[in-house]
Each structure stands twice: as C-alpha cells, then as structure tokens.
Design goal:
This protein is mostly beta strands.
Length: 332
C-alpha cells in the first residue's frame, strides 16, 4: 500500500514547452503490476504542461494491471492543465498490450484545456487504445473539464479506441461536467465503433449520475458515440461484475462498494463510501472462474506515442517514476 502520494509538476520555460509529462506513481509503465493500493494525498496530483499523461498508478501504461486501486478523500484530485491531456483516476493513457482487471478508483479528475485542444478524462482511464481488455472495474470520482477545448469524458473511461471493455460500473458521486461542447457518457465518453468492443450487457451506471445536468450522455459522431450503460438502481444485482466467492479477488462489503483483497486488513486507508445510489447494492458470491494468465512482459519500450493531432515534442520527456524495460510485479 502506497500512502500519501503527492505530485506537482509545472513547465513554465518556453524552451521546454513541448515536453510530454508523465505523472503518477509510475510515469511510464511497461511492466505488470498486481495487488497494489495507492492512497493519494489531499494535495493530489497536479500537472501543467503541453502534453500531459496523469493517473494515480501511471500516466501511461502498456502492461497488465490486476487487483489495484487508487483512493483518496473527497478533495483528492488528478488535476491537469494542458493543450492535450490524458487523465484518469488510475491510468492516464493505455496502449499496446495494456489491460486492467479487478481495479477501481475513487479520485476526482479535472482537466483544463485551451481552445480547440483536447482532453480525455475518465474515472479510471482517460484514453484506452490497447489490444487488451478493461474488465471488472468501477469508479466513483467526479469528472470535470474546464476551458474552451473539446473533452471526451466518461465515468469509467474517457474514450475507448481499442481492445475490449466489459463488466464495469460508473458510480460517480458527482456529475460529469464540462464548460464547453464535448462527447460525454456515464460509462464512456466515446466508443470508437470500428476499433473497440464494448459489452453493452455488462456495463452499468448509477441512475444518480448527471451529464451536464442531463440523465443521458451527450455528443459523439458517426465514428464513435458516447456510452451510458445499463441503469443501476439500488437493488441491481452486480455479482457478475464483482464476484466474492471462493478465490475471487473482491471482498463482500454490505452497504458500500466492494473492496479489493489487495488492500491489507491492517491498512487504515479504505475506499470512500459510494453515493447513495450504490448504498444498498449487494454482491452475491459466485463460483470463481479460472484466472487469466498475464501477458508476457514487454521486452522493449518504444518511444511514448505522440498525440496524432499535435506535433512531435522537441524537448524530450519528463517522467515521474519511469520503469526499466523489465518491471517486476509489485505486491502490496
């Protein structure tokens, strides 16, 4: 368990203005991580730069993440001011063989972007373009974008542009809001139809969530559209999402959202209480399924991708907690 994580990065020098900033416990993650909890300090993770990748666990990920969580009090936030921002409660951007299984985040996420620029913000992941999957996850944080840019914002994922997305719950305790136009969804801000496979039968969202004051999401295009998921009322059975029986990784937690067994019994940091809409959800034990093998570790690490809509940074990269080519699994 990592407690009290605080990061603040500001790039003010114009000669370094094209730097890509990777902020998180790991800046750039290419290895596999399991059974790790992160408690973000009240001061949160605050980043200012041109290209920003920010998440509690990693700004950028291309490895397999299992049984991990990121929590904090009501004020803890992932906050970035950028021309192009990838912001998530757990991961900023995920590509290649990256995957997330049995994870959750309770952190607030806020992005401020300039006119005609982009921000991808999600309660768990900002931008997913991986060949892997996101499954058995939930997020509860507030998602917000300010400025005159174009945001892609979702309760769980900002934009899904590859891989598979299933067994997810958006239980965001506050609204998903933006000061400008954008593509916003209760579960996912935008799903690229041709590239991402989203299981519409196993993704849920709290009926209390409001997207810019509306019950349903807004925005989208012929290429992709927002995804709101199935309405989840207080009596909705979510045992398929968070099995608690046998060797499953979830602890049953009456009157609260389920917690991960990755959290040590003696740890004082606990997940926040969910919004009232989730207060009476039950998680019935299921027969455990065989664990999926982790993908092999990445043997080489290419240069981090540059946003397609922006020029190649000239100043190099600034990274917090960058890993080696071979990153061992982390146990809590």
């Amino acid at each position: 368990m990592v407690q009290g994580l605080k990061i603040e990065i500001k790039i003010e020098d114009v000669t370094l203005s094209n730097l890509s900033i990777y902020a998180g416990l790991f800046g750039y993650l290419s290895g596999n991580v399991r059974n790790l909890g992160i408690q973000v300090a009240t001061a949160g993770i605050k980043v200012k730069g041109k290209y920003v990748y920010a998440g509690a666990l990693a700004g950028y990920n291309e490895g397999a993440i299992q049984n991990c969580f990121a929590i904090g009090n009501n004020s803890a936030i992932i906050d970035a001011e950028a021309s192009i921002g990838y912001l998530g409660g757990l991961i900023g951007k995920m590509e290649h063989e990256g995957s997330i299984t049995n994870c959750y985040a309770t952190l607030n996420v806020k992005g401020t972007v300039a006119s005609n620029e982009l921000v991808y913000a999600g309660g768990l992941v900002g931008y997913s373009k991986s060949q892997g999957n996101i499954s058995h996850v939930y997020a509860t944080g507030k998602i917000e974008a300010t400025g005159q840019g174009y945001p892609y914002m979702g309760g769980v994922v900002g934009i899904a542009a590859g891989g598979t997305f299933s067994h997810a719950l958006a239980a965001n305790k506050d609204n998903i809001t933006t000061a400008n136009r954008g593509s916003l969804g209760r579960v996912c801000g935008n799903v690229y139809i041709s590239d991402a496979i989203c299981d519409t039968t196993t993704c849920y969202a709290s009926t209390k969530i409001r997207v810019n004051g509306k019950v349903t999401g807004v925005g989208g295009s012929s290429i992709g559209k927002h995804f709101d998921g199935i309405n989840a009322d207080t009596d909705t059975d979510l045992s398929e999402l968070f099995p608690t029986g046998g060797d499953a990784v979830w602890n049953p937690a009456p009157a609260t959202s389920p917690s991960s067994k990755a959290s040590p019994a003696t740890c004082k940091a606990r997940p926040q209480r969910p919004p009232s809409s989730t207060a009476r959800w039950t998680f019935r034990p299921l027969r455990p399924t065989a664990a999926r093998p982790l993908p092999s570790k990445t043997t080489s690490r290419p240069s981090p991708p540059t946003p397609s809509s922006s020029p190649t940074p000239k100043g190099g990269n600034t990274s917090m907690g960058q890993t080696d080519k071979e990153t061992p699994s982390v146990a809590a």
